[in-house]
Amino acid sequence: MDKVRADENAAYLEASADLKQGVDGVGKALSVLRDYYASASFVQQPAKPVTHGSSGAAGGGIISMLEVAESDMSKNLAEVEMEESNAVATYEKTTQENKMTKTQKDSDVKYKGAEAKSLDKEVSELSADRAGLQTELDAVLEYGTKLTGECVAVPETYEERKARREAEIKGLKEALSILESETAFMQAPRHLRSVHAH
Q: Over the stretch 154-176, which tens digit does the pLDDT of each residue have?
């Protein structure tokens, strides 16, 4: 934007100088011509030749053309100066807006940087807390699994119950056979009992 403004200003200075020089030159030429034609009408001159026409009419035409040229140059100079004035005002307004925006953005960057550092610190602290709590949770879950295995009755499968009952029945049959054999020993005939009693 600064380069564009500098280029515009350089073009303005060149055009303005040319137009001012042109207006000055045309003004001086008009002044000289007006003085010349004004004094020429008062001077007594010899009689004009028949083939020669009045130079006053030609001078009036030249003066009119120079006045139009001077007016056009003055108009162009005013337009160039107005454009330069508008360009300067726009440049200064934009420059001020840019400075304000930059100041705001700089303060936003500073604030966001401080906020980012704060959040990084908080993330670090929370990560450390999480790691500690995760260690505690893992220990509790491991202990809970151990207690569950010890405290919760796990239903037996049909095969396990059948095998356990068969073992129980077998054990009871063995006990019964042992008891029957001991009972047979214990039951001695009566006549043997009376002999022992005497």
A: 778 899 899 999 999 999 999 98
